[in-house]
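Why does residue order matter? Because the sequence determines the fold. Keep that principle in mind as you read this record.
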Amino acid sequence: MSLDEKTKSTLQKIPLLSSKAGPKDGEEWVKRLKEELTALIEYVKMNKENDNDWFKIEPNKNGTRWTGKCWYIYNLHKYEFDLQFDIPVTYPTTPIELELPELDGKTSKMYRGGKICLTVHFKPLWAKNVPHFGIAHALALGLAPWLAAEIPHLVDNGIVVYKEKTSSS
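Structure:
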């Protein structure tokens, strides 16, 4: 995966993680979750400072299921999607699989259930950076470029259609 300068700059500002714990590792998992949240807070803060706010997520109580929204602005329209993922038992060795359920079946760059395809480009980079990469890195290096590549294509081909927000929404 070749990174452009803007992506490299973003990546350098997201804190790296050090704990190699997964959901079954008790107190070590709690430590890893704190690192994940710190990295996410820094990434969100950086995005807001650069007027590039594009997702909102939150974990369940034990940090194993995350849900929220992500959005992409294209032709001055905001396209918003549900975002969800589970933390694999073998995390962080195994990366998370980001899901956009409402786009399930709408693009070939997606697996069943709305899981976006990151196999070719992102998984090798993740593997080289275990345990240092976390959720914020997956969003920055996985979901963000996927949205930038896929949403314009889906919109231009009429597969995703802009929905006007109403005042009661």
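The longest strand covers residues 65-74.
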